[in-house]
Amino acid sequence: MEEDRGDIGTLRQIAGDPHGFILRQGWASLDFREEEQVARLRKLWESLELEILSVLEATNGLRESAEWELYDAWWRSRSRGWKRRSANWRTRRSDWGRKSRN
Fold first, then answer.
1. Residues near 21 by beta carbon (within 8 Å), at least 6 away in sequence
2. Residue 55 in this model has a pLDDT that exceeds 60
3. Which one of 4, 52, 56, 85 is separated from 41 by 20 to 30 angstroms, measured CA to CA?
4. Residue 79 is inside which H or E element, if any?
């Protein structure tokens, strides 16, 4: 390190213009903004993971409840009725086709 060799002038150059010193050495520039962005994105990712887990737990809790069983039974009965109505409609539609051909 420069301080160990007693090169105060180099230390002053680094302190005065760190980016310029890095460029004069031929090194790649350091971009700490990217690291900050990565840290922010990591925090966002972690918070989204927590929110997803929270929603999954709430959904699982709902599915285990009596209200869900009631809703599920209602939906299934409604779906069966829809299929019957749909089948009746198809039958009636095919009847219309036969009547129009005659």
1. 13, 14
2. yes
3. 56
4. helix 66-101
Helix (H) or strand (E) holding 80: helix 66-101
Q: What is the gyration radius of the CA atoms in the chain, in angstroms? A: 35
What is the distance between the terminal CA atoms of the chain, rounded to a whole angstrom?
Answer: 101
Q: HSE on the CB side for 39, CA within 13 Å?
A: 5
Distances from the Cα of 54 to the Cα of 39, 40, 46, 65, angstroms: 23, 21, 12, 17
Sequence letter at residue 94: S
DSSP class per residue in 32-78:
HHHHHHHHHHHHHHHHHHHHHHHHHHHHHHHHTSHHHHHHHHHHHHH
pLDDT attached to residue 77: 87
